[in-house]
Amino acid sequence: MEQEHVRAYPFVLASGIVFISEVIMALTSSHQDHPFGHLIESLPSEKNEVRKYFNPQKLGDPKYERLPFCIRVLLEAAIRKCDGFYVKQEDVYNVLNWEERQNEAEIPFSPARVLLQDFTGIPAMVDLAAMRDAVAKNGVDPNLVNPRCPTDLIVDYSLQIDFSKCAIQNAPNPGGGDGQGPGPRSVPGRPAPRGHHASSSSAQCGGQRGGCSKGSCTDLPTRATAVQIENTPLLCPFHLKPVSEPETALKNQEMELIRNKERLQFFKWCSKAFKNVSVVPPDIGSVHQVNLEYLSRVVQESEGFIYPDSVVGTDSHTTMINGLGVLGWGVGGIESEAVMLGQPVSFTLPQVVGCKLVGSVNTLATSIDIVLGITKHLRQAGIGGKFVEFFGPGVSQLSAADRTTIANMCPEYSATVSFFPVDDVTLKHFKQTNFTEEKLEVLETYLKSVKLFRSLADLSEDPHYTEVIEINLSSIVPYVSGPKRPQDRVPVTCMKEDFLNCLNEKVGFKGFHVPREKQSTTVAFQHDGTEYALSHGSVVIAAVISCTNNCNPSVMLTAGLLAKKAVEAGLTVKPYIRTSLAPGSGMVTHYLNASGVLPYLSQLGFEVIGYGCATCVGNTAPLPESVVDAIKQGDLISCGVLSGNRHFEGRLCDCVRANYLASPPLVVAYAIAGTIGIDFEKEPLGVNSEGKEVFLKDVWPSKEEVQHVEEHMVIASIFTELRSRMQKGSTFWTNIDAPDAVFFPWDAKSTYIRCPPFFNKLSKDVCPPGSIDNAHVLLFLGDKVTTDHISPAGSIARVSAAAKYLQSKRLTPREFNSYGARRGNDAVMTRGTFASIKLLNLLVGKPGPKTVHVPTGQTLDVFEAAERYQRDGVPLIILAGKDYGSGSSRDWTAKGPYLLGVRAVIAESFEKMHKNHLVGMGIAPLQFLPGQTAESLGLCGKEKISISIPEQITPQQELTVLTSTGKSFSVVALFENEMDVTFYRHGGILKYVARSMLK
Fold first, then answer.
1. Helix or strand or coil: residue 678?
2. What Cα–Cα distance (Å) separates residue 849 from each residue in 75, 119, 781, 814?
3. CB count, 10 Å around CB of 462?
4. Does residue 907 form part of some domain?
5. Cβ atoms 388, 421 nearer than 8 A
6. Domain tally for the chain?
7. Is the same domain home to 597 and 708?
8. Is 55 inside any structural domain?
9. How much is the pTM?
10. Do 709 and 852 fall into the same domain?
11. How far apart are CA 174 and CA 156, in angstroms?
12. Known Gene3D superfamilies for this protein (predicted)?
């Protein structure tokens, strides 16, 4: 008889939801029949609790202790999940013999859980809802469509910055339209300007004896309700007493909930309709922050068995969890659906690069500097697609937060995994985050029993690696990355000179080619009645944001302490600069608040605007109109500075062409300076009211100051309080109504949630794709086409195919929301495919979402041209250069082209995750032979193209391409293994999984 169990969590979001784990149940009920049942041992416990585990050491093979720690995790999973069907004994021994079988053997891996964030999570869950409909129409029980792998969905990407300190007066009205509910309640007026006390209407903090001797705490918003103060307290900068909730955070949060009510209703339905799915409601934190603080256990426990935690997530930065010794990486949203439904991830046994850290960390270097330094070394080492594992004496100098920050950037140096084995530093972190002594004891005892605990003092434990790269931490100095790509690192000491060089250089990855006579252009403008001036290099956006930094207390506290010293020194930030602070979670706000630095950040304009991904994914508030006009008038290269993990030209704002990644304290410093063209060693940040010059060295906090505050503020009580808040959730979320039904009630009027067409005409029989005959080129693209180009995540432009569709549904531009928020609507997302204004299609010759409809010669929107081709029954292909599909993981970068009618993409090289997405949707990723390009082959994009694809195609097979002009050349089908071929023949993973249920 099938038993049930409730999934163990550090918190409960939906009590009464039952979770079923068929594999673990099979192991516990009949482990004597398990092919590796003889490896099962019991873990001793003071409470006589029976915990069983598979101990790979009992294989008696000395090769085990030579394996990298990340490979040991793969081996344990292969042993535990060995069922003779998905995982065979041969797979186990392939992993054990990693040194001989690396880069050759194909292995399956079943992670412990799946992590979804809402931008990629909503289309995954919409697909599962549609799959239920499809299998039911074929006479199959719809409840078969139910995640077998525990799945967490974190709602974090919908936050947009509608309100900030200089936009709040002209706030949009979120009410009306699209059935999203009424507008927000009345909120007290705008906070006083930075650095000035307000009138007597400002809130009083009460001070020590009934009043603040410094006067009204006017840089703080007016008094909020007691509930608001409890949720996000703000302190008087003089007495550190709670005063009020930041007005902008409240309004942004409220706008988010109102704008996205329909999507949230769908998420609520998912939490009811699907077993093994938990939904973390909005405004709790970013997906990786929540994963770090609440979901990750390092060791999982289920049905009396314990085993290493592992995860695959629908975001390329899922690797962040590697910093805590949890194996995990990003997969496509399409692949994640297959894993949720019980399919293992299949991949080639990876090579593992050992990264040996030596030396001491520079005093001024923050985690982001270390990240960028390591990124540079590893990118140059050519480790694409490999696992990286860190070891060496330098590892002990890195805190758990430092490690997770380094691991977060793993995709930027093209590795699959960036793993730090569990050690004493990891245990200290978990003790600090309120793990009980019992949990810590179980964790440590188990990991040491299976040799998954790393002793940094014992060099004899160093595993064997494919190769070793040594990095001296003392060589890493503070860097800034930009102005267009994260890999273009510039020492802070050289920033002024580098920016001037960028102005001179020809247009390219770094250059802007501004004529020398125009490089000194200055444009005066008015803002709030005061005259200011902009020039090349002026900072107009400064955002302390992104899970990359917000998870790291030392980095954020450095920024806060710098702000405190700057305010005390009399420095301010110009009011027209769009500043924002979006903490990764409430924990960050709590420790910034508790340490007394949050009010100083607020005084400089870095007000908490909410929780989740905002500016980092392009959801920034518009710049003041006067600033935009000044930029356009002078054709200025204005700058944005972001403490994020990725940027591209125009990602933050269309008119902001130079964008830099920097650590949070440097973001604050550049905001104060007001320009990127400053030499911090020789030039002051600013001049205070007394005419005294203040330099960066005068306000930069020492490492000892930061550590002292961190040790006293980032304590277990913080995590306890926030877990309590997580359990309670928000009243808005609690009150959302959602249907309690097996099938989702699709609403034909909805502009957020639509039943996708992926399962139309689904049948049991497979119809292989076959050859592609007389295809036209939809787009002829160059190098570095990113997922932002293919499927933007930010705001929907008023002049776009998606906008026309939404306007036809009687929505105003104010109600468009973002592409990311509408990923549950295929009509919007198909129209949004290749909708980036930065897309350069060589058929057209200038940037924009346009292409040439070859039969008529007309220049049309990409969507309109694709529609015409589909009406005429013409298949489509895309030609591209190097690194096609680089950037954030987005399944719509494959779903969109599929719905446009694209059958194949021929490129010089692909980003691996995007290539997997294409395969997952039945689109063939084809690669030019080495040394060949579309240009070298004389392709112009206007010829017809035919590709011979055999029914029994094999991995890495060469295919012949013929053009209507008589040219012939070969390409390689980038199917990595037989599973890829199977998915392609079925028309993608989704159809493969659905057909398996029909059979």
1. coil
2. 47, 22, 12, 22
3. 15
4. yes
5. no
6. 2
7. yes
8. no
9. 0.70
10. no
11. 19
12. 6.10.190.10, Aconitase, domain 3, Aconitase, domain 4
